[in-house]
TrEMBL record:
Residues that bind substrate: 91
Domain Acetyl xylan esterase: 1-318
Native source organism of the sequence: Microbacterium oryzae
Source superkingdom: Bacteria
Alphabetized Gene3D superfamilies for the sequence: alpha/beta hydrolase (3.40.50.1820)
Chain intervals for the UniProt region annotation (Disordered): 121-141
GO molecular function, one term: carboxylic ester hydrolase activity
Protein name in UniProt: Acetylxylan esterase
GO terms, biological process: polysaccharide metabolic process
Pfam family, one: AXE1
Residues annotated as the enzyme's active site: 185 (nucleophile), 271 (charge relay system), 301 (charge relay system)
Length: 321
């Protein structure tokens, strides 16, 4: 795929005029307050992951409505971690295997890798361990239109709350340590939500984030998962305004304006899954002044891959120096 979105100089200033619901902040404050009231202390059980340099624990913490959310807590052996990274998962993935530690524990940083409720059907990720015990009306296959009739019932109300409360869980597991949030694609969108909603995170590293600038994303590309919205609206022609009103409560380009922590984003200019303009919409709206963006001109949704992980490790090290 060649470059198909706005030229880079226009992307750098792209700020869509997205409608913000009048009760946007009240909606999220109420949602988090109700779920925190139903919360409970994280449950932790050590597991034998076959590793000698990283200790791994099976964790359950209270997410939306007090629902149990599964996670892996991975801590470097023989040293006190310098920080915690809460990592959210890409669309259709699960938390994976206990031994899938990634680079962060090797850098002396504890990692809480969080399952995504109702997902984990991508067998390459090792599957998920967290159900989503809520029904919904008619929706396209996948979760992007599940419960989309109302922000109260929408799937991502639960998933965003889980992401924010994962930060609470990390603070309970490692009191006093700075907490960073990260993730790629859907995980990038969830990290934006966590940074905006959890409050006082030390930093955010959204990698080629999904779930941003819904009006543009759902009309610019026909790739999955955004195509789920198109599929739904092709059948429910009368619900266009209703659907976009619901999505406005969950738009990462709006939530980003509520986030003030330091941030390192990435974008790929040939990304047909999360179009570049939608990533720039969130980046340009970010509420904090300490922000940076790695641009990969010739990559699709794989973004920077290992290059971006190296950039994240350098960025994290600089903030912990």
């Amino acid at each position: 795929m060649a470059h198909f979105d706005l030229p880079l100089d226009q992307l750098r200033s792209y700020r869509p005029d997205l409608p913000v619901p009048d009760d946007f902040d009240d909606f999220w404050a109420r949602t988090l307050s109700e779920s925190r009231a139903a919360g409970w202390a994280p449950r932790v059980e050590r597991v034998d992951a076959g590793l000698s340099l990283v200790d791994v624990f099976d964790v359950a913490f209270a997410g939306f409505g007090g629902d149990a959310i599964a996670a892996w807590w991975q801590v470097p052996v023989g040293q006190e971690p310098r920080a915690v990274v809460v990592e959210s998962i890409g669309y259709s993935g699960g938390r994976g295997h206990a031994h899938d530690t990634g680079a962060f524990p090797m850098a002396g940083v504890a990692r809480l890798v969080v399952d995504t409720r109702g997902q984990g059907w991508n067998h390459g990720s090792g599957g998920g361990a967290t159900p989503d015990p809520y029904g919904s009306g008619s929706h396209a296959p996948g979760v992007l239109t599940r419960g989309i009739e109302s922000p109260e019932t929408y799937y991502y109300r639960r998933a965003y709350t889980d992401a924010a409360l994962a930060v609470d869980a990390a603070r309970a597991l490692a009191p006093g340590l700075p907490v960073f949030v990260t993730g790629g694609s859907q995980g990038g969108g969830l990290s934006i939500a966590a940074a905006a909603l959890a409050g006082d995170v030390a930093g955010a590293m959204p990698d080629v984030p999904f779930l941003c600038d819904f009006p543009r994303a759902t009309t610019l590309v026909d790739s999955m998962p955004y195509a789920e919205v198109r599929t739904y609206l092709a059948a429910h022609r009368e619900r266009v305004d209703e659907v976009y009103r619901t999505l406005s409560y969950f738009d990462g380009a709006i939530l980003a304006s509520r986030a003030t922590a330091p941030a390192l984003f990435s974008v790929a200019l040939m990304d047909t899954v999360c179009p570049p303009s939608t990533v720039f919409a969130a980046y340009n709206a970010w509420g904090g002044e300490d922000r940076a963006l790695e641009v990969y001109p010739f990559n699709n949704h794989e973004g920077g891959g290992g290059h971006q992980r190296a950039a994240q490790l350098r960025w994290l090290r600089d903030r912990l120096a």
